[in-house]
Structure formats: structure tokens, C-alpha cells
Amino acid sequence: MTSQDLDYYFPIKTKTACQSKWSWSTIWLNSGTSSSCHRVDDFKIPEDDFGSFHNLPEKIVHREKMLKGKWPGQGCEYCKVIEDNNGFSDRMHNNDIPGYAPTELKKDPTLTHVKPTIVEIFAHNTCNFKCTYCSPILSSRIEQENNIFDSHPLIPPNIVINKQTVNKRYEDFFLWLEDNIQGLMRLHLLGGETFIQHDLITRVLNLLERKPCPKLQLNIFSNFNPPQKYFKKYINSIHELWKKGCLSRFDLTASIDAWGPQAEYVRFGLNCTEFEENFAYAASFPEEFLWLSANQTVSSLTMKTMPDLIRMINKYNTDRHIGHYAMLVDGFEFMRPEVFAYETWDPIWKEIFKELKTDTFEQKETVKIFTGLQNVMQSKLEHDYNSIEKLHSYHDEIDRRRNTSWRSLWPELEIKKP
Question: Which of 50, 115, 224, 306 could make an S-S bridge to 172, C-beta 3.0–4.6 Å?
Fold first, then answer.
């Protein structure tokens, strides 16, 4: 990325415009759909025109509405709610990042058909975790669990997927990437668990060796609990490519929501000791090569030990930058902390802000994100007993399936309607 690119900010300044809507495409191969971020609806990619994924008709309509200062809906309410509560939303955060806006906008900032600069690919659901807020389409272990147990009204069912169709999309993606990777600023690889999806990583790394991309930032999301031999092998391979000038930077994002037994319940399969060993290994690489971040999903069950997670991160956040990003759980509304009155969380928020660092610009941005989440919770003065009852029912079923006990870990959440 050149200095000119780094100085180039998203030029559209209406009150709703979002850089992600113009720059970013997440591609979900299982469903054959694409979205502009993880908060919005995804839309069908034509089977005979894979390359149209970034300029689907629905995405064009959203961009047109944003140019007029309107919220497009279909998931953008996530940021609207935060902004309406005087918080710092994903949209505001993303618009502050230079270098990612499509270059076509330099000549005409009203364009709605552009090339993506950030592409994120979900290839397969192969995973070694069963996170409580996840679904079978994203986790093979949940898919397997659903095959054993009876259905439950709150647990997403398995979806029948045509593997032949998915394999075709997989090949279509690599055909597109072959021709377009050198025009990207960022390429994100998602799981499941990415470090056990060997064909995906190997093909991407081989492509980078054949077609060096000195401005590209490669980002891998991981639960940091794959077999260590794979975790270290692929990081070392990417390091060798970086030394050859085949990429600008490697971003490694740890998916982690809390700490200790509570975290191991929510992200079933997690071993915190192994996580920290791998986190320390990643943190041992020079920052100019590896940017390390923690990506956190905030729910009622993760709030309790968020301060412990921040303390763990801070142990490695002394001589290098470690990013920390948080978002409210999506898709399971009854899991959101706002179903409880704010007084439930007030002592925890005090502890969270006591632990968060504010020495750097990035750390201050993290504080702004957390403040936005706190503002949303502060607007809730009473318990939502119907949602709390669903929360209890859901995790009672999880306990039945996994021989766990949420009530022993969160007795304070056993709130019942008077």
C-alpha cells in the first residue's frame, strides 16, 4: 500500500454512508450469497455470474440510499441503534480507516458499481468448536450434534447443502481470485476453523507465491485451538512469503469472547491454556509482519469474564499493538445483554473500563467501541422476562446435549418473572 493509498479516506460523507458497503464483500459459499458486513442481510449470487457478488442489485440499492443519507435497513439497524444512543458504531469505525475505499471513487464519489478492495471468504463449516451462538451452517460439530439430538425450537436446524454446487462455487471463487487478487487491499479467510481447512490456506498461499501482492493484507480468523503443528506451520509459511515481499502484512484475528470456564462453555471446545500458548506464539513475531487482534462477541454469558479477557490480552499488549474489537451477538436476540436491566452489568462495565488501555489511538478506538455497546445496554432499565426465559431454555438444552451446567457458572442470571 502506497503512502497515497494510506492518505485516501472514504470520500462519501452523507450521514449514513458506510465504507464497507462500497469496499467489502463477504462471500458465503455454503449458501451462495454475499453481504457487505457481518451485520447485514446476505444476497444470492447468480450461479452463472459469480463475479457479480460485489455489485448485486440489492447492494446497489443500499449504496443509492446511503448516497441520499438514508439508512437502507436489512441489518444496517445494528449501527443505527448504536449511533442513536450516541455510541461509536462499526460504520463510524470503518469510515475512519484510510486506504480501503475503491479507487474509482477518487474520480466520481457517486459511483455505485465499483470493484471490491476487501474480500472475505467463508468456504466450509469445518470446525472443532460448538459455540453457543453459532449454527450448523458455520460449524460442522454443531451439524454433527444436531444429527444426534431431537430438534429444539431455539436451535438452528441443519440445512441440506448440495456439495457439488458448493464445490463449483469454491472453484469459481479461485478463478475470480486468480484474476483479481492483485487489486485487493485485504483478503480474509474465515472458518469454521481456518487452520484446519488445509486446501483453502494452501491454495491461497500458493497463489500469493505465484502472484506476489506487496500491498495486500492477508487476514486469517482462528479460534487459536487448532492442533499446534498446523497453527505454527501456516504462520511460518506466511512469514516466509512476507519476507519474499509476497504480501504487505499478515493479520491474525483471534475469536475469543470471555475467559476461563465461562469462555470454555460459550466456545465449547476451547482450552484457555492452549489458546494463550498460541496467542503468545503469535505475539512473538515482529509487528511489521504480524498484526494480532482479538475479535469478541458480546452476550449475556460473556459479560462476566470480559475483564479477565482484557487482562489476558494486556499481558501481551506492552511492547506491541494488539487490536481488540467487540460486537453484540447477532441472530440470537435473547442472548443479548440488553434483555437484562442495565443494573445487572453496571459493576462489570466499571471493571472493563478500568482494565482497557488508552495509551494509543487504536486503544482509544477500542474504548469508543465498548462505550457504544455500554450505551445500548444503558437504555434498558427493565428485564425482558420473555427473552430471559428463552435464554434459560436454550442453554438448558445445550446442557442436556453437552453434559454442561450453565447455572453453576452464571447463577446470577437465574432471574425469573415475579
Answer: 50
